[in-house]
């Protein structure tokens, strides 16, 4: 009789430390960030009352449609993420669980990270201007271009900035507009020669784009697979590797010509 009672008691006593451990694990901060779809902004329009792209010393064309840059929003570098947050993120299509070091540079303060992201954005804007003017064959001396986008850091808006500049400046009738009146979104870094680079978080960015009315998404070709993993219904992915290729694809799309998709 004693042996029959002692086994459940033993199991209960053994379970107590395990239960306590699970509670500790569930509450302990983990080295992850949880990300979701962020804001989008039309680079052909205004952001918080100020034009995103301002061009002087040169004629510009009246654009139509929208070119929306996209972002993700993530838990902050000093914000705790516990097991419950991670578990929730794994089971939701509008969340991604990422190693914190892949989102924020390790060993830096919030202030340092903000400065780093701001510097990346400024460099990206400069490269976008150089790439757009290079594509158009324009001298930087013939035009003044300033870019403004509040509360956004990092380099991933570079491609959309460059496309917006091309759309506004190419007013000689040789190419036509880039949107065809559509709401087009996208993401991608760009260097001064017009090469498009990968950015990460694209499956979340397609969701942000769809939420804000886009039906076409321009994506770095290397990230087609990720972009298609949670693709919203009705969204078309256009893979690109260069600014020139992106411009050509969007103009072909506007004419109803064949354009490769992911």
Protein model, in words:
- With 262 residues, the chain is α/β, with parallel strands linked by helices.
- The chain has a single domain, classed as Ribosomal Protein S5, domain 2, CATH 3.30.230.10.
- Helices cover 40% and strands 21% of the residues.
- The chain contains 8 helices and 12 strands.
- Strands 6-1-5-8-11-12 form a 6-stranded mixed β-sheet. It has a two-stranded antiparallel sheet with strand order 2-3.
- Helix 4 runs parallel beside helix 5.
Map the helices and strands.
Elements: H1 2-27, E1 32-42, E2 46-47, E3 50-51, E4 53-56, E5 66-74, H2 83-90, E6 96-99, H3 100-103, H4 110-136, E7 144-147, H5 158-169, E8 183-186, E9 189-190, E10 196-197, H6 202-211, E11 216-220, H7 224-227, E12 236-240, H8 243-255
Parallel strand pairs: 5-8, 8-11, 11-12
Antiparallel strand pairs: 1-5, 1-6, 2-3, 4-7, 9-10
Helix pairs in contact: 4-5
